[in-house]
Description:
GO terms for molecular function: endopeptidase activity; serine-type peptidase activity. It comes from Comamonas testosteroni (strain DSM 14576 / KF-1). This protein is of the alpha+beta class. It folds into three domains: about 55-125, no CATH class; about 155-250, PDZ domain (Pdz3 Domain, Roll); about 255-490 and about 520-525, 2-enoyl-CoA Hydratase, Chain A, domain 1 (Alpha-Beta Complex). Helix content is about 20%, strand content about 20%. It is built from ten helices and 29 strands. The protein has helices at about 75-90, 110-120, 145-155, 185, 210-220, 280-295, 310-320, 325, 385-395, 475-485, and strands at about 1-5, 15-20, 140-145, 155-160, 160-165, 175-180, 195-200, 200-205, 225-235, 235-240, 240-245, 245-250, 255-260, 265-270, 300, 330-335, 345-350, 355-360, 360, 375-380, 400-405, 415, 420, 425, 430-435, 445-450, 455, 460, 525. The strands form nine sheets. Strands 13-14-15-20-21-28 form a six-stranded mixed sheet, sandwiched between helices. β20 (about 375-380), α9 (about 385-395) and β21 form a beta-alpha-beta unit. α7 (about 310-320) packs parallel to α9 (about 385-395). The protein is globular. Mean pLDDT is about 85; it is low at about 1-40 and about 495-505.
Amino acid sequence: MSSSICGVALCGVVCLSLLAGCGGGVNDSPVTDSPGSSNPDNTGPPPNPAETSSSFAQQCSPDNILADTLLRNATLDTEKRWLRTYFDEAYLWREEVPAVDPGAASFSSGYYYTDLSNYFDALLTPAITESGARRDQFSFMYPTQLWQSVSENATAPSHGIEWLMASPTPPRGLRIAYIEPGSPADVAGFKRGDTLVSIDDVSADAPDADGVDVLNAGLFPEILGVTHNFILQRGGAQLPVQSLTSTNITNTPVPQSRVLTLNSGARAGYIVFNDHVLPAEGQLVTAISNLRNQNVSDLVLDLRYNGGGFLFIAAELATMIAGSTQTAGKTFETLQYNARRSAETQVTPFYGSSCFPINNECSNIQPLPTLNLKRVYVLAQSGTCSASEALINGLRGVDVEVILIGGTTCGKPYGFTAKDNCGISYFPIEFAGINAKGFGDYADGFTPGNGPTQRYVPGCSVPDDLDHALGDPQEGMLAAAMNHISTGLCPAQPFAATARKRSVSPDPNAAPLTLRRNPARNNRLLLPH
């Protein structure tokens, strides 16, 4: 089974397309070696370039417990040969795949999933962006059964908390950014801005790997019904221990929509949009309709925690913001593949009508409400990814002025499809996307302010203000947007609450902790429209 991802027009049949991390471009990409460049000395084709992945598909190792029992009639080497040939067929940077020995010790430990994971990582391009980051930070593999569960159901075990972290090593400064309404954390009284002290008696600043494992188990539960004990700090005071039990959480994609009155007396709409999941379509239609009926003159779209989802929703929202006149007949995003797959270039338009899919088919096709705006304010931070970045890029492609308030977005400009083999779904980056003007170069993210390339977006650098609730006019990012609407000016300096100096430097020798997010929340999902 292969599911396509990232805003491509579906091939005449009704199928669910699972998209992860797309929306960027290959044109003028600021990397050490551009896609399609000549082979570096350390790269090479598969051992036998004439072989195809289909020759080795679903031929699995006897040790691979994720594979169907009837398929476990081959070897781990066969699975590696499938993976290497699939990279040569599908990977966007196929010319840059390093030449590695699949029989090397790091790929032959005897633990099949670890060996495959290490081999997969070794095949990724080593090219870097201008900032020094790996260009391919997003390719991944995942057990197929678990992937289907989190992507199709849009639920996963959770406490309902979105965390932010100042540093992966101590002092980590772990604080709550957002609480899902009705979640265990909400019921327990957890609040945005609370600081984590400990989980299960392990300090939030535990320096050792065992401590980090305990923190990960509590911060990002993977099993339903497991209880963890949390101690938080609020306003400098430590709170009593609270127990949270993980449950399946379905996120509310549009938890806020309201009208704000500016100092000038003008009315601006404010929408918190957290996920491009299917329920978002109806909630966005309702929110935009209400704002249109209240004659708002500006829109502040809060995407700071929106990691992506269905790309058609991004294309619909872009139309609802800009209106049909600016978007009619225009391209929202065009996908580009490697040289072997150049004929697969596909286009996602600006959709002017709703879909409301049922069983992967549109059930309610109606004209979308529109605000007909020439300008939109977007609140963004590092959690703004994938389809959210495509929304920014797509609007700029049709000359809608985007004012970016906050920080640099995650820089997830590429996409891939889920390709399943032997119970594992593989996601090597397969394509890149460009807007109607041919731009998609934001591998280092969109950054507010003036800069030498189009990845710099006019706006203001403002930190996330965890000391105020989302939607509070005094919250730093929203206050900066409201002031900019009225005056065209950015804040003179960051607000004091989040600009406090850290008295202790991060410990470079401590075990790092990485914030995780359900992979389905960082993926774009496409349906026929």
